[in-house]
Amino acid sequence: MSTMSLLCMVFFCVCFLSISAELQRFEHPIKPDGSLSFLVIGDWGRRGHYNQSKVSDQMGRIGEKLGIDFVVSTGDNFYEDGLTSINDPVFEESFTKIYSAKSLQKQWYSVLGNHDYRGDVVAQLNPILGKVDSRWLCQRSFVVNSEIVEIFFVDTTPFVDKYFVRPKHHTYDWRGVLPRKEYLTKLLKDLDSALTDSTANWKIVVGHHTLKSIGHHGDTAELVTHLLPILEDHSVDMYINGHDHCLEHLTSTSSNIQFLTSGGGSKAWKGNIGKLNKDPVKFYYDGQGFLSVELKQGEAKIVFYDIFGKVLHNFDLSKEFYSTM
């Protein structure tokens, strides 16, 4: 066996073990004043086209104003079909060279979208990309603990039936996911356990696919069935997603969860609005943009911006702080 083949085998084993274990945790410190702020962007990687560069410019401006601690990506990081390898130039052309503002030189926490699964998933998850650009951290599912908040990143693409039974002309990279039923059962169990153990005052879940949406894709039935009950049982504060190329804020008639879509990182679907559902719609914008989250122990502020940095929608949340000491 060649040295290269051996290295590939070792990496694959490490990768498999990491997704088979409990959700990996990453610690991210809060600011000295006890606050935390970050930006959320999704559906972006198009080499600067479709206003991706304009969105990036405003992210840099808002990021500097807020003194952000990190950036969250809700997936579909590289179009149209993910990365071809760890040497794919699209990584630098769609990420490093586009998000070049000083304020954006912070850690990026990213999940995979359905378009990412059409490429070489193992390449996009490979820690070698972190050596190409130290900001990059992409895993299937993981937790970021930042003292006042825990953010639970969930790999939502394997939940969606049509990618398996009706893939059309697309090919998906299911390495590390099959057998699918076992993968999803363990993921839901690990998420439920992590949420049960969480002592953070704020709990945010991030995934690529919509849970509640009036955008093109609408609600994702498989997530409503399997994921939403866990979020409701653990009083999650926000579910943040991409997938629909828009910005939106929905609330729920059955819980206090705020459903936020930030999928306006590049190509938007102007005028492509789905049917209304029974859940209250607080805001919908079928164009490009992003959102910011500012957190304190008992307060949260969420703001949506367009490509000109204009505030489109904002709201505040508050809650009591219960010490675990």
What can you see in these coordinates?
Helix content is 26%, strand content 23%. By secondary structure, the protein is an alpha/beta fold. Strands 1-6-7-8-9-11-10-12 form an eight-stranded mixed β-sheet, covered by helices on one side. A seven-stranded mixed β-sheet has the order 5-4-3-2-13-14-15, covered by helices on one side. The longest helix has 18 residues, at 3-20. The chain is globular. The termini are far apart.
Global structural class? alpha/beta
**Unreliable segments (pLDDT under 50, ≥5 consecutive)?**
1-21
Percent of residues in β-strands? 15-25%
Secondary-structure element string:
HEEHEHEHHEEEHHEHHEEEEEEE
Please list the strands of the largest sheet in the order they lie side by side.
Answer: 1-6-7-8-9-11-10-12
Q: Can you give the mean pLDDT?
A: 92
